Amino acid sequence: MINSSASHLCAFALTLGAVCALAAFPSAHADDTPASKSAAQAEKLSPADQQFLQDASAAGATEIAASKLALTHASDHQVREFAQRMIVDHTKLARNLDVLAKRHGITAPAAADSALIGNLQNLQGAEFDKAYIEKVAVDGHQKAVELFRNESESGKDTALKAAATKALPVISHHYAMAQQLAKTKAAP
């Protein structure tokens, strides 16, 4: 009898789980092609939110690409350590933004700033360190702080706004670290 009751309880739980799972999805319509779903989802984002996603993704791609270069082109161990931390943190952030973008039908990956990456590729050692610190670490994070602050204050999409608000302290910390690195490396 106990096995029968447990069996019925288990079957009920599975049925309830299936009903809840089906309720989470909208009913299918004939015009629900992947293209129409993507277009409809993308339309839900305001132009400013779409621009934020594009700019944040591009900034992250640039940060990651430049930091990977720093691992082989930088001469200073502090610059390489900073770069390694940026790769880890910005990869996590990029994954989170990618999930949000895909929810809205935005699947094209953002490209890194090819001009900046191209300039950095041609540098080695102390020249690379100086350019990376100035253009990527300091300038890049200053722009990112402004970008994420604006989205956290003015974003229309609640998920994007929450993601920007959550990421802002990390990016602000990166900016403070970059400023400190710049100050340390500017000393004779």
UniProtKB/TrEMBL annotation:
Domain of life of the source: Bacteria
Key words of the record: Signal
Segments passing through the bilayer: none
DUF4142 domain ranges (all copies): 48-181
Pfam families membership: DUF4142
Signal peptide range: 1-30
Record's protein name: Membrane protein
